[in-house]
User: What shape does this take?
Amino acid sequence: MGYAWNWSVLLSATPSGETTFLGWLLAGLQWTLGLSLAAWLVALIIGTLFGVLRTVPNRWLRGVATTYVEIFRNVPLLVQLFIWYFVLPELLPSTWGSAIKQSDPLMQQFIAAWLCLFCFTGARVCEQVRGGIESLPGGQRNAALALGLTLPQTYRQVLLPMAFRIIVPPLTSEFLNIFKNSAVASTIGLIELSRQAQQLVDYTAQPYEAFIAVTLLYALINVVVMLAMRWVEATTRFPGFVGGR
Amino acid sequence: MIVYDKVSKWYGSFQVLTECSTQVRRGEVVVICGPSGSGKSTLIKCANGLEPFQAGEITVDGISVGAPGTNLPKLRSRIGMVFQHFELFPHLSIMANLTIAQVKVLGRRPDEAAEKGLQLLDRVGLRALADKHPGQLSGGQQQRVAIARALAMDPICMLFDEPTSALDPEMINEVLDVMVELAREGMTMMCVSHEMGFARKVAHRVIFMDQGRIVEDAPTEEFFGAPRSERAQQFLSKILRH
Assistant: This one.
């Protein structure tokens, strides 16, 4: 293979001179982390909310939650992103639409990508929460209600604490996915980690170094997430639970 | 105390309860028996509104269970219920299982609730297990805790839904002993059970159900002495043979 390896390229200055190419990658990493964590936080909240709604006795509330899930998990992520970014401003009243278009482009990209990621991931979290709740014996709900707990108290005190413990493993996968899925934001111009890699290739013509470095950074994120979730799993364990002491 | 007036219930087009009428007076112990699928569990779950019913009326302490304006959580907090599969909350310690509803529903202070919890654990002989989790207890111990959890709410009556049928034989008596004691203290009780020895010992009346109907509703001695219906005679001859 006639490829001329040159790892020192990462430490050489960028054309603008204010940082190194590695500095670019780290700047991209910050956007990836910021976007993914902000989206994950909201995805957890709405995923829990709709996951609960999918299991309540009221048919209409269940219908609302089902509609949300079916829309956001059945349309490709990339298509959703384009709808948020390109189509939505056109559908809004024209004063709002043009206000959006005149705002800071970076904010436009970030907010579109954030909305896209949390709606998509929220739908998947929702299904996991529902699965967790439905895997509990039906008698648990009855026992809580029979003690006089209201339905919200029953969820808060009895069903969700158990359901979340059960779904830590799939939730970990989902948490990992959101960092990887955040790479779609590069298609609308947000300079996150994978976009920085492409930019590095354009400027240095050293694709292997650029993509290996980016791969390692994604891997690093995932290792940290896995360790964190393993810690969560260990600290929420209780005696008599599967894997408990 | 608990009055059923022509209660009927359907799952879709399948009728599970047909015009069931009976009542449980204050301090009375009523045992409900019958073949599986006869609607026994459904009947007592209607009493605290865990199962909705479509026709008839049930009142508990004068309050209509099925009426739209009824505050069901409040009513349920006054009716103790014990389930076949215990249904302790596995993520909470035994003490937390006993105190959670006292604090969240009755608004008792945590220390007050804990004191009450300990008293009741003492009563069912399990004080030493207060800090354990349900998964570390045997079935019989879990069911005794479940009874204590229900009693911690100071209920006006208790519903038992086959409390011993998920237990190993040697654990059945430890649970029945607690129930007998409770009955002797004058607790109003409605028990779905096949423990005919228990029924004979403490029940004032026995209700026999078949295919969603109350076929027989008689004082205990009369029921065991000479059941009027053929179906009840058959049932008794099958379960009392051994």
Remarks:
- The CA atoms of residues 168 and 233 of chain A lie 7 Å apart.
- The mean pLDDT of chain A is 93.
- Chain A touches chain B through 23 residues (CB under 8 Å).
- Chain A has ten helices and no strands.
